[in-house]
Amino acid sequence: WDVFSFGVILLELLTGRGPADHASPSTSASFSGPSTTTTDRSGSAEHEAVPEAVRWVRRGFEDARPVAEMVDPALLREAPALPKKEIVAAFHVALACTEADPELRPKMKTVADSLDKVGS
């Protein structure tokens, strides 16, 4: 299973952003460049493309941006009773799936179990 791709798709669903989207739906903030250098646990740097949505959401959580600024407004309209903690939990699952170091990413079984718990 490609857990990284699943995480990207989950972030796209949560944010309402596609791969080519560059600006926040609620702010004028734009994404940064198309790639980044990461360091794995062995200390070696590797250059890899990181999807824009992944970087934008990570930056949003690092900056303690309100979840309402990151979540797709259509999701909130269609499911207004959806608790904020469930949305945040889904973001955390997606971010875990998109960790730069593949060894830190959860297994798909763990992801499925986590998502089951989000809904219950």
Automatic annotation (TrEMBL):
Where composition is biased (Low complexity), the residues are 23-39
Q: Does the keyword rRNA processing apply?
A: no
User: What are the alphabetically sorted keywords of the record?
Assistant: Signal
The signal peptide, as residue positions, is 1-20
KW Signal (keyword) present: yes
Task: List every stretch annotated Disordered.
Answer: 17-50
UniProt name for this protein: Protein kinase domain-containing protein
* Species of the source: Aegilops tauschii subsp. strangulata
